[in-house]
Specification:
Length: 85
């Protein structure tokens, strides 16, 4: 994919399709430190986010994109990792 443009929307989804993170690009060419949320284990009937070990789907403006380098795997909330598009 080409460079990200200002106004592009980057989203992350868990395997069930739950939106886990969203960022609107502010600076051409990249996105910033984006929170990607995990599932709350105390609400068994509701999927609010990703679970440890799940590979996330990334979309830009609603179109699926593939991360370059390592897979975008969710480990736990608060962990920082770099995901290049």
């Amino acid at each position: 994919m080409g460079d990200l443009e200002v106004g592009d929307v980057v989203t992350f989804f868990d395997p069930e399709g739950t939106l886990c993170g969203k960022w609107v690009v502010r600076d051409k060419g990249g996105y910033g430190l984006m929170a990607v949320y995990g599932d709350d284990p105390t609400t068994e009937d509701v999927d609010e986010g990703a679970k440890a070990g799940e590979v996330l789907t990334i979309k830009v403006n609603g179109r699926e994109v593939i991360a370059s380098g390592t897979l975008p795997v969710f480990e736990r909330e608060g962990e920082t990792r770099r995901v290049d598009l």
